[in-house]
Write a structure and sequence with these properties.
492 residues; mainly alpha; 2 domains; four-stranded parallel sheet; two-stranded antiparallel ribbon
């Protein structure tokens, strides 16, 4: 936590970008206009737990990006505490230390804790439910499952995985059919909550979840799509491959994956005693949840965004911690954990991984970010590490400077971090966003100013330039005979 806040703390209060900006707006709607307005004024079909948590933070400390980040930090803390608790209870304190330290140094976890997403909350909820499940505390376990149905439809994979692990655990203990009613009863509150939410959503006029945005059946029922794909083994597709690469290979994650695999295979023979009941329950759930989440969620034809694989990370990191703890020599154990932790922070603060860099890189507001130029990656493909926060801060400085200058628009890369979409959204609903004195502000690409048609349409406008080529652009539009004023300098 200390390393996280020391690295990212200077960005607390920065207006988010990309998908987190949408979540910020949705939470603002819930906080100011109520839950029904969320489904009346937006296109979201997800349950409202994330937006509700952020709206609660807005109500407690005021609406600001800092309050939004506070929710992510809280999920970070809860998730880390519960991962440490479950691994310590089921295995050992050494395993818990390694698993928790390395998982919560992972770049994907950190950047999505600063600007919390559904996957950030899901990791904390699954870790909490797993602790109660492994500890055989089924009353709190019963209630810890309810947040899953109010978070995101993909979280239902965790609910089903807990049910399957519960049945296997009872069979192992010889309970068989005698306890089947008890097993089912533990899941009834979550099922009832899910059904109640479905009725409520229909009453609000909300739409059915459609995650199949890029597939052949785009726009149809995602549940029906998944059923069909499973029957035809269609889940083994390019979307699954790309999402697995994001979670397990790119940005030095291959070092974690290979270490977990090598240590698990290398130390498996050292364990002769049978696992404890808690360890069996923990391992059974992760053995069911990890492949199920990968096949059912990461194969859905939609934008391949790195954060989608965050829940999948729980299994490899727990396996890594457990296997590392079997190293008898404390010095070797400490050296291994230290090296992997250092690699994680290299991944957090730079884009130097040769495996990922082979796809190229993009220069975004002075930051060199990994680029994966695939058709289905989308702009959110850039959110691999904490460098993303520096790019967002620079973009916010550019927009704020343009607003202060009184310009009608700004000249920069309009596609970077979806700036054009951000400006359009702020202009349409300035009350939902934290920019001071927000007003309509359009974006023009520098290459477009050389087009006589574009220059003619911008005649009489004042444009803010966020780079050091102000004089060049002014000469360019003057040469075309366009009456356009170029103001501003590059923000620091």
């Amino acid at each position: 936590m200390a390393c996280f806040l020391s690295a990212a703390g200077r960005h607390i209060g920065e207006t988010p970008a990309l998908d987190p900006l949408l979540f910020y707006r949705e939470a603002t709607i819930v906080a100011t206009e109520g839950l029904p307005a969320l489904y009346r004024l937006t296109h979201t079909a997800h349950p409202p737990l994330l937006q509700g948590l952020v709206a609660l933070a807005f109500g407690l400390v005021g609406r600001s990006p800092a309050a939004y980040t506070a929710v992510g930090v809280a999920c970070f803390a809860v998730g880390a505490l519960m991962v440490n608790a479950v691994v310590s209870r089921c295995y050992s304190s050494r395993a818990a230390f390694a698993a928790t330290l390395l998982l919560y140094s992972c770049p994907l976890v950190l950047v999505n804790a600063f600007y919390p997403t559904h996957e950030t909350v899901l990791l904390a909820v699954v870790a909490s439910a797993l602790y109660f499940f492994a500890a055989d505390r089924f009353v709190p376990f019963r209630w810890s499952l309810i947040p899953l149905v109010f978070l995101k439809q993909t979280a239902l994979v965790a609910l089903a995985s807990f049910f399957a692990a519960r049945l296997l655990d009872r069979l192992r203990r010889g309970a068989g059919r005698r306890r089947l009613a008890d097993d089912v009863a533990d899941f009834l509150p979550a099922v009832a909550a899910g059904l109640a939410w479905a009725v409520f959503l229909r009453a609000l006029g909300g739409s059915e979840w459609r995650g199949d945005l890029l597939g052949q059946a785009a726009g149809g029922s995602t549940y029906a799509y998944l059923g069909e794909r499973l029957l035809h083994l269609g889940v083994f597709n390019a979307f699954l491959r790309r999402n697995l690469e994001n979670a397990l290979i790119y940005n030095w994650q291959w070092s974690i994956t290979l270490s977990a695999l090598a240590l698990t295979l290398g130390t498996a023979a050292r364990r002769r005693e049978p696992p404890s009941p808690g360890a069996f329950r923990c391992a059974t759930f992760l053995a069911i949840f990890s492949p199920s989440y990968a096949l059912l969620v990461l194969s859905i034809p939609t934008w391949t965004i790195p954060r989608y694989g965050i829940p999948l990370l729980l299994g490899p990191y727990v396996a890594l911690g457990v296997a590392a703890a079997r190293i008898g020599n404390r010095g070797r154990f400490a050296a291994l954990v230290t090296v992997l932790w250092a690699v994680s922070w290299v991944a957090n603060l730079s884009s130097l991984d040769p495996v990922t860099a082979r796809h190229g890189a993009l220069e975004i507001y002075g930051q060199r970010l990994y680029d994966v130029p695939e058709e289905n990656a989308g702009a959110d493909r850039l959110t691999y590490n904490l460098q993303f926060l520096d790019a967002v801060a620079s973009q916010n400085a550019l927009v704020a400077a343009a607003l202060r200058s009184g310009a009608d628009g700004l000249v920069t890369d309009c596609a970077a971090l979806k700036l054009d979409e951000k400006l359009a959204a702020i202009a349409l609903h300035p009350e939902y966003y934290p920019y001071p004195a927000a007003r309509p502000l359009f974006c023009a690409g520098p290459e477009g100013l050389g087009d006589p048609g574009v220059a003619q349409r911008l005649t009489g406008r004042v444009l803010y330039v966020g780079r050091d080529d102000r004089s060049r652009l002014q000469a360019l539009v003057d040469g075309l005979g366009a009456s356009i004023s170029i103001v501003g300098d590059s923000p620091s």
